[in-house]
Design goal:
The chain is an alpha/beta fold. The protein contains 17 helices and nine strands. Helix 6 runs antiparallel to helix 7.
Length: 448
């Protein structure tokens, strides 16, 4: 038997502030400064009353088209476009003119309107979730994904005013420089690769970092080496999302990296007495590290955000998030069949998450096959697979490249390779290239 869901008619009972809306609209007719402040802080939907929304829409249109706004020009615009009745008639304009607004309190009026708007948004989201939950042919995963997506939008709206004066900014930077000058530590998280850290000053908070390369170049191995180094140096929790490999495979790799026992011997169980001594020691160390591994497939940004919050609720902080790899992620907000567009939305959302939690996020990425069709196989930014937005949204792009000429000149064996790490993009620093040693038996990167 199908359960019938009821439509809730609650529009007349939602939170609103009639007087605050009137005061803001009145300010808009008397001050160009008020228009700039209001348009940056309020959307049309933030106004509760329909005629107030139409009023603000007209103001926005005139402002965006660089038209001078006062009571005369605004009234003329409304009459010429047949909008007088939509804003409530001439009587509403007269009431607003006689309101005698005080622009000193404009920020407070805006805060009151925004508060009520966010409360309405939460109420509507709650009723929408209740209705969806009654419909059993909608999967629970879709309901939760939509709820998290909409809730994420609401929480992003609830932000303090980010306007800062030059006095505040200069003083803040001065204190930051003073602290850096007295501290020998890098400002970012130490990757453990000295040449890389020298060029990047560590992985910076709120940065989206892309590690790219062709299959089997060692992207996962490089990210896991960084993971262990960061946990050892910073003692901060690291969250690894492995969309391709299982948790067990990740742990085998970590054990091989730390014990110097090859993965082949670990997996076959052909271990000597000394191996067991090493394993016991390393297992005790790894078991105490704040490392979290999630091997869920088809992860969305909303799910990643929720799991970050879970770690933060336990440890009060988080150092780094690693995603392996970005092309396997799903976009729960929009699945329109255009994979490049979906990936663009994913990278932008990941950058927003990095900013929200003020942490670096490392996302691994495949390179397109175009590399193999060129004479010079050294990767470039345009080789990032499926989306140019990866290049646009990333703060730091690192590319792994095996130069066969370098390896033949240095006579490395089949188990040890020299890998070029190319800094293809760095928003706040230089680009360049460094060399690392890759031990294939232990799938571990080392400084040369």
């Amino acid at each position: 038997m199908q359960i019938e869901t009821r439509e809730y008619d609650f529009d007349n009972y939602l939170p609103h502030n009639f007087l605050a809306e009137k005061m803001v609209l009145s300010c808009l007719l008397t001050s160009s400064e008020a228009i700039e402040i209001t348009t940056k802080n309020l959307s049309v939907e933030a106004f509760y009353f329909k005629n107030h929304q139409e009023f603000f829409k007209a103001i926005l249109f005139m402002y965006q088209n660089n038209k001078f706004i006062d009571i005369i020009t605004f009234t003329t615009f409304l009459q010429e476009n047949g909008l007088i009745n939509k804003i409530g008639g001439i009587k509403v304009l007269i009431e607003l003119i006689n309101q005698i607004p005080n622009i000193v309190y404009l920020d407070e009026y805006i805060r009151l309107i925004k508060d009520k708007f966010l409360r309405r948004s939460l109420i509507k989201l709650g009723y929408k979730t209740i209705n969806s939950s009654f419909i059993t042919n909608i999967s629970l995963e879709n309901i939760l994904a939509e709820f998290e997506s909409n809730f994420f939008k609401i929480t992003n709206e609830f932000k303090p005013n980010k306007l800062s004066s030059s006095t505040d900014l200069v003083y803040s930077i001065f204190l930051d420089l003073k602290q850096k000058s007295t501290s020998p530590n890098l400002p970012g998280l130490i990757s453990g690769f000295s040449a890389l850290d020298s060029l990047t000053q560590g992985f910076q908070k709120s940065d989206l970092i892309i590690i790219a390369g062709r299959p089997s170049i060692g992207k996962t191995a490089f990210s896991l080496t960084i993971t262990l180094n960061i946990i050892k140096y910073s003692k901060l929790p690291v969250l690894v999302f492995s969309l391709e490999m299982s948790k067990e495979q990740i742990m085998y790799r970590l054990l091989s990296m730390e014990t110097n026992i090859s993965q082949l011997r670990l997996r076959s169980g052909k271990l000597y007495e000394m191996d067991w001594i090493k394993l016991n020691k390393i297992i005790k160390i790894l078991s105490k590290l704040p490392l979290f591994v999630d091997d869920s497939s088809d992860l969305s940004v909303q799910e990643i955000r929720g799991k970050i919050k879970t770690v933060i609720s336990q440890y009060k902080t988080i150092g780094l998030v690693i995603i392996d790899y970005i092309q396997l992620m799903q976009n729960s907000i929009s699945q329109n069949g255009n994979r490049a567009q979906e990936l663009s939305q994913i990278t932008r959302a990941l950058k927003n998450v990095a900013k929200e939690f003020n942490i670096p996020i490392i996302a691994l990425s495949q390179l397109s096959r175009n590399v193999e069709n060129r004479t010079d196989k050294k990767p470039i930014l345009s080789d990032l697979r499926e989306s140019g937005s990866i290049e646009q949204d990333a703060d730091l792009v690192l590319m792994l490249y095996q130069n066969d000429r370098t390896n033949s000149e240095q006579s490395f064996d089949n188990f040890n390779k020299i890998i070029d790490l190319i800094i293809a993009k760095q928003r706040n620093g230089p680009t360049g290239s460094i060399q690392l040693k890759f031990d294939k038996r232990r799938t571990k990167y080392l400084n040369i």
